[in-house]
Amino acid sequence: MPRRPPRKPDPSLDLSGHLLELAALPAPLDPHSLFPQVACIEKVASIEKVACIEKVAPIEMEVGSGKGLFLATASAARPDRNFLGVEISGGYARLCAGKLAAQRAVNARIIHGDATYLARCLLPDACLAGVHVYFPDPWWKARHRKRRVLSDLFLSHAGRVIVPGGHLHIWTDVEEYFHEALAAARSTGLFSEARDVETRTAEHDLDYQTHFERRTRLAGAPVWRALLERSATPPTCVRMAVSLPG
Ligand SMILES: C[S@@+](CC[C@H](N)C(=O)[O-])C[C@H]1O[C@@H](n2cnc3c(N)ncnc32)[C@H](O)[C@@H]1O
Hints:
Elements: E1 19-21, E2 40-44, E3 47-51, E4 59-63, H1 69-77, E5 82-87, H2 90-102, E6 108-112, H3 115-122, E7 128-134, H4 152-161, E8 162-172, H5 175-188, E9 195-196, H6 211-218, E10 224-229
Parallel strand pairs: 1-6, 4-5, 4-7, 5-6, 7-8
Antiparallel strand pairs: 2-3, 8-10, 9-10
The structure holds S-adenosylmethionine.
């Protein structure tokens, strides 16, 4: 289904603390350098509470953040973790950054760019506690299949950058893509067998992992979910020093 262009974020918001351009990032990129390494102040119901972020808080990366519901919700719920989104569409990356800036999230950032390039060329081994991929574009036409983000290449680098014991989360409404992605993840030899993830009853209108999950469930359609654990097997690929095209 074609997507409407995203809303523009409130122009009075300063996005510079939350929006990063992939093309401007160094290779290799230590993702911890993107987050403050000090305690953060979180305002909760007008009482100021100090939430201490460990010096190297674990980082979870979301691929294709769309409207940013996961980043906004997860970063508010887990002040002890850092959340890094990567979104290829500039409009959606700005929308996410606006959401994070509005809620003054100190532990979330969004990178505008291609997740496969980020994983393959910038991120060092074992630097992430987890990778989340929710409702990746299915690219239905056979000639467009190679654009699917859950490719062999991406999954082998996802395995390289996730720390042993860390997690890969895959949710989609496309059964065929789900099974294909699990088979590709299995063939990297870097993950445990996939575990099912149970559906939770939503307690309010935005109590979903992402906007696409909300849309799919409200339409009564099924969602396939898997949780894979990174094993202790050494990575099967190395970070590639390849320049960004164009
Ligand atoms: C179908 S939407 C799902 C958005 C969100 N995850 C959700 O569930 O609501 C897929 C998103 O992935 C983004 N995307 C597609 N390919 C990507 C890539 N290679 N790197 C980063 N983002 C990508 C698209 O721009 C789009 O915002």
